[in-house]
Amino acid sequence: KKHIILKTRNCLNFFVEQDTLHYIIMITAALHEAQIHKPADTSSTVVSDNAPPTPRIFRSKLPDIDIPNHLPLHTYCFDKLSSVSDKPCLIVGSTGKSYTYGETHLICRRVASGLYKMGIRKGDVIMILLQNSAEFVISFMGASMIGAVSTTANPFYTSQEIYKQLKSSGAKLIITHSHYVDKLRNLDDKTKIGEDLTVITTDEPTPVNCLPFSILINETNPQEESESVDVGGDDAAALPFSSGTTGLPKGVVLTHKSLITSVAQQVDG
């Protein structure tokens, strides 16, 4: 299986496989981990039985976590950028290629601007159909910066499964790898790549009627409009779909606030 190593300033490496929600939380936790980690104390206490009758509450001895859930996810993840800009942020396990925090932030801004130029606006949905990769992280964060919502799909889904999620989510474009383009050509008789569906591929050569990922990351001057989008904690950030064990898969809206809360538990808890 392909992996991406997410390396933090404190040399904490995350090897993660394609589990959408867990992956989103772990990549954002790794991006945000740019501060000294507090000593862990996993013990907990129980309210004394001699206390007045109250619900039994289990609490950690650690202090409460400060969760700045008024911030958008991307701001939270890069809040220590100035102090760690030259530190490794992403390391791709298959190639060894690494990106510093500064490089990652800049590329994410370029992707945000590129998506904005393609007509993606706040609240619009894009589909990320990728295995673990740097492009997954960059696409997700770039979309976050303009208030767009990422619906993440398993690249090993069948054409029919991808089509159902595409239609249900209302995604306006797909970012994927060329290996999976044939599945997208067989979605249905009416959906044609390049006409009805915009597909961006992260590798070369670019398949017919698709666009190269470089159209996003080579954006040298991020547009002012894309960087002035007001994104808040209560805005949607991700739209993963349930597994469909007991019924059809359903989209689950995750706000910036909810993801930040999950990340804070990983990093500061």
UniProtKB/TrEMBL annotation:
It comes from the Eukaryota. The keyword Glycosyltransferase does not apply. Pfam families: AMP-binding (PF00501). The keyword Ligase applies. Keywords: Ligase. Residues 85-266 form the AMP-dependent synthetase/ligase domain. GO terms for molecular function: 4-coumarate-CoA ligase activity. Gene3D superfamilies: N-terminal domain of ligase-like. This is 4-coumarate--CoA ligase 3. The lineage of its organism: Eukaryota, Viridiplantae, Streptophyta, Embryophyta, Tracheophyta.
